[in-house]
Design brief:
CATH topology of the largest domain: D-amino Acid Aminotransferase, Chain A, domain 1
Number of helices: 11
CATH superfamily of the largest domain: ATP-grasp fold, B domain
Shape: globular
Radius of gyration: 20 Å
CATH architecture of the largest domain: 2-Layer Sandwich
Structural class: alpha+beta
Bound molecules: adenosine-5'-triphosphate, magnesium ion
Number of strands: 18
Strand content: 25-35%
Amino acid sequence: VKTIGIIGGGQLGRMLAMAAARLNFRTVILEPQVDCPAAHVANAQIVAAYDDAAALAELAKRCDVVTYEFENVPVAAAEDLALQVTVYPPPKALEMAQDRLTEKSFINGCSIPTARFHAVDSQADLETALADFGGQGVLKTRRLGYDGKGQRVYRSAADSAEGGYAALGSVPLILESFVSFEREISIIAARGSDGKVACYDPAENVHRNGILHTSTLPASISEQTAAEARKAAEKILTALGYVGVIGIEFFVLADGSLIANEMAPRVHNSGHWTEAACVISQFEQHIRAVAGLPLGNPDRHSDCVMTNLIGDDILALPEWLRLDDTLVHLYGKTEARSGRKMGHVTQLLR
Ligand code: ATP
Ligand code: MG
Ligand code: MG
């Protein structure tokens, strides 16, 4: 492998391109937006939509393997691309991850528990589903939701369900039972083309306004819970014949057991700490996997906290830069719109 194609040119694509460069790989990104975060570090860019057949054919011709930085690459386009060039992770992972209904069914099929759920395709469906969960639940769009967008929480039977279906856009929805969790964790894991699996330590995640705020290592969980997360990751990776890095989110219940929430077939925001606290980051791990190189050791050499810099958080940059043992990583975005991920910092705790 000499050249790696990356579909998507956001910050994840940028960090993948940086890791690829260090191992002497060239990168070509496919991204419609010209001035995107990855444009400044990739070797070349094809400016076109993610499902543009001609652009994908060109990407296939110019690259030895193609990967992606986001889970909403249209499955048909990815499958078509896979007939022309190796695509890792396999398009099946996209298919299982981009619709919450398919995703939860798949995860349950791996004998990993999730919240209970009902498909909701009408207001009547919503009312039936809510009644089944005693009036509590989280209503979500099945597709394209991120950072808590496209969600509505029902806390009790007193919360009016009226207009709930239309409020989320009259698109296919899912009602999940409300999980009273003690904390949230995620695991970043990788599978190489030789089938070997490497798991990073689970991170404990705190969200603010629906967006990941901090990931802390170690998570306050037992070794048994950590082992359960690793086991779940291994099952999912194996079931998909996966190659690359995956991020899987879990809720931790009071008794330490895990409920899987969602998975992302790509490098993950809650794995950014690995660049500071491990010798091999999730980005290099992903590049190693898709390029057919041996996976790196995922062991963590330090405790740490990763904090996202969202919107105006970036104004505190001078203070972060003055802290010891703190790795600052910026994404090259000029306009700090509210809710926009501008960068992140990882502070080693030692
Ligand atoms: P991401 O940006 O991580 O992709 P997302 O928009 O896909 O987020 P989820 O991860 O499904 O959304 O949900 C966002 C957050 O909402 C979760 O991290 C959790 O805090 C809360 N949440 C989601 N589903 C449930 C549930 N069934 N019960 C309780 N809380 C939930
Ligand atoms: Mg998500
Ligand atoms: Mg999530």
